[in-house]
Design goal:
The chain is mainly alpha-helical. The protein contains 7 helices and 3 strands.
Length: 183
């Protein structure tokens, strides 16, 4: 559902995606109109809520290049299926399998590593947490609650005692130097 008007893609620096809805593929038997997907608001959000998500310069560059070479669909979406229309899960699933085969070793392909595209979300959230992004900011960017992060990503936070001790020491040193004032 990502459209060009939801993308802030500056020529330099960080950009932003303004996520305003979801289109989960659920199967036509589960929708009121018989379509295999359902357009709806973001999970646990008001109908017109928009979630801004900062994106790093490397992703800004990739999206700018994609728009430059492929443009958008008639509806303004960034991505479309081979025959037009929204990309269906079967299509990106097939592309994902092929990409894994090309990018990973045979042993990795046989493993559960990045078995499905959604695994990238877990990898991203784990990366943010390991990089020291606060729980509150990680939750905001991921569109989850802090409680959900703590429940599902606690293992990522384990073993961080030395890193957290260093951060606390740094904070104490800064506080001590501020308290002493100019020499």
């Amino acid at each position: 559902m990502l459209s060009a008007d939801q993308c802030d893609l500056p020529t330099e620096g960080w950009g932003r995606l303004l996520l305003a809805g979801a289109r989960p593929q659920v199967g036509s038997a589960w929708t009121d109109d018989g379509k295999p997907y359902e357009e709806r608001q973001l999970k646990h959000r008001a109908r017109r809520a928009v979630r801004p998500v900062p994106i790093p310069p490397v992703l800004v560059d990739i999206l700018r290049a994609h728009l430059g070479s492929c443009g958008t669909t008639a509806e303004g979406r960034l991505f479309s299926a081979v025959r037009g229309g929204p990309v269906r899960s079967q299509e990106y699933g097939a592309v994902w399998k092929e990409a894994r085969r090309k990018a990973l070793t045979a042993a990795q392909v046989a493993s559960p590593l990045a078995a499905i595209p959604y695994d990238l979300r877990h990898a991203c959230v784990s990366f943010w947490l390991r990089s020291g992004v606060s729980l509150a900011e990680t939750a905001r960017r991921a569109g989850q609650s802090v409680a959900v992060l703590q429940r599902y990503y606690a293992k990522v936070l384990d073993g961080e005692e030395a890193k957290m001790n260093a951060l606390i020491e740094q904070g104490l040193a800064e506080h001590e130097s501020d308290a002493e004032g100019p020499g």
